[in-house]
Design goal:
The chain is an alpha/beta fold and 423 residues long. The chain folds into 2 domains: 216 residues, FAD/NAD(P)-binding domain; 148 residues, D-Amino Acid Oxidase, subunit A, domain 2 (D-Amino Acid Oxidase, Chain A, domain 2), CATH 3.30.9. Helices cover 28% and strands 25% of the residues. The protein has an 8-stranded mixed β-sheet. The protein has a 6-stranded mixed β-sheet with strand order 8-2-1-12-19-18, sandwiched between helices. Helix 2 crosses helix 9. The radius of gyration is 22 Å and the shape is globular. The structure holds flavin-adenine dinucleotide. Flavin-adenine dinucleotide binds next to helix 2 and strand 13.
Length: 423
Amino acid sequence: MSGVRAAMNYSGLALLREALRGHSGWGPAWRDAAPRTEYDALIVGGGGHGLATAYYLAKEHGLTNVAVLERTHIGSGNAGRNTTLIRSNYLLPGNERFFEKSMQLWEGLEQDLNYNAMVSQRGVLNLYSDDGQRDACVRRGNTMRLHGVDAELLDLAQVKAMYPYFDYRNERFPIRGGLLQRRGGTARHDAVVWGFARAADRRGVDIVQNCEVTGFRIEGGEVRGVETTRGPIFARKVGLCCAGSSSRVGELAGLRLPIESHVLQAFVTEAVKPMFDGVVTFSGGTFYISQSDKGGLVFGGILDGYNSYAQRGNLRVVEDVMEAGMAMMPLLGRLRVLRQWGGVMDMTMDGSPIIDLTPIRGLYLNAGWCTTGFKAIPASGWCFAHTMARDEPHFINSAYRLDRFAVGAVLDESGHGAHPNRH
Ligand SMILES: Cc1cc2nc3c(=O)[nH]c(=O)nc-3n(C[C@H](O)[C@H](O)[C@H](O)COP(=O)(O)OP(=O)(O)OC[C@H]3O[C@@H](n4cnc5c(N)ncnc54)[C@H](O)[C@@H]3O)c2cc1C
């Protein structure tokens, strides 16, 4: 397979040239490739993590004879269903170094991919409402700063100055201050998928859609390829990036994974003029909110709390989320909710992900993203590519081992213990 493909670079000059000739020169952003029978490496799952892995395999490790196999169309899973928050405000060292790597990659991503992923560092503010929550914010902020990551503790007056329309008289869920990461923010989820797809394709990766993996070819404990709805495809390296379907796909290879699948819902209102500058999480109920570039207020809350593979949620959580939103910001009640949807989350026992080798030689696992895998996409792809190419984890993903549950080296950021639905 050839290296970098000749494709039009997106630039101001290209836009001007195309404007002058009626935009007749733009080609498709990536090829809808037909699968070949053999590759050096296969990625199962065309979400953010799968596409980013393929891109960094080609860019960082020169592995271009690679295919991404996607059951439906790319971005049809959680990559296209999330609320687009990016941040690196973590407490535990194993998490902080990874998510900060991701933040640094986000900061240069658009130039790297030559694609407008609409990365917007508008600030992520976690509100606190009592002394215990304030202590937790102080501890997390100090840890972040020790890792060289930005964090600011805000008092009530500073929060009021930023968001004058919150309800500061709510006695049940008072707002006392917050922990702000100014470098956090949002990115356009579809654009992230398309940007990685285009950049991977330009380096020779085949993106194969409507190609479901239905089984694995394993001989003598080594992977040889996969069975798909478009025939068998052979490869000595196969990486799984199936998010909410991880346990199902793992089972096809005989792996029983420490993952449960749960539904997470999100909501968007009708579009209004710009009114909500940043991203805010509310500690009273579990609620978070931002405003999309189209003007809708995008918000969500906690998991539905029961195991499911359905991409839709239940009404109890709808009520909880609306209640928490109204407690934080009563003006929300004046807006109409336009859409509500759900995605299937791959929840681990400690709330942290897995990027590792598996007991089957040549089969690698990228999973367990819980409710926070969008922000992880760049670092996840970068680390998983390293793990697949070098057959060992990078230091940055060295805490994300599959055997950590067996050896007791768990990474429990929220301290909830082995309750996947609580993380
Ligand atoms: C409502 C909601 C809000 C969220 N908000 C945020 C947020 O604000 N910030 C954040 O960081 N994270 C957020 N997340 C989490 C984040 O979206 C996910 O953790 C992340 O997108 C998962 O990785 P992915 O993009 O690769 O997954 P996906 O896009 O789900 O990709 C997996 C792909 O694998 C494919 N697949 C499955 N089985 C097979 C098979 N057998 N053969 C071939 N292909 C297969 C699927 O079709 C799918 O396209 C949110 C999620 C939801 C649902």
